[in-house]
Recover the amino acids of this structure.
């Protein structure tokens, strides 16, 4: 992402350039993030990345699409997780006949 420090968690070795930092474990990421304020760190990923890093997150911003798609990977259902509390939900937005909402959760275990 432009104008941001991008840290990538990957099993692959030997790729990247000066614009990104590659980490190969959650511990490695933790070490790299020590110099940043928590409110300045965002996780963008796929299912595996979210599963590994969600327990360390104090907040989660989730876009909820109001349609069920067939998929083999899913984001954790924070509504069913005891530690997570829904703190805000937007009005419905529409893009090309797809309705969605922006939601925000907080992790009560970490706050």
């Amino acid at each position: 992402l432009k104008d941001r420090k991008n840290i990538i968690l990957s099993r692959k070795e030997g790729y990247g350039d000066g614009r990104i930092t590659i980490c190969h474990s959650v511990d490695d990421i933790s070490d790299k993030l020590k110099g940043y304020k928590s409110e300045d760190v965002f996780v963008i990923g796929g299912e595996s990345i979210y599963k590994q890093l969600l327990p360390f997150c104090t907040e989660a911003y989730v876009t909820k699409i109001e349609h069920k798609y067939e998929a083999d990977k899913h984001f954790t259902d924070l509504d069913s997780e005891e530690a997570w509390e829904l703190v805000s939900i937007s009005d419905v937005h529409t893009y090309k006949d797809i309705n969605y909402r922006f939601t925000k959760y907080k992790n009560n275990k970490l706050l």
In short: The helical segments are 26-33, 47-53.
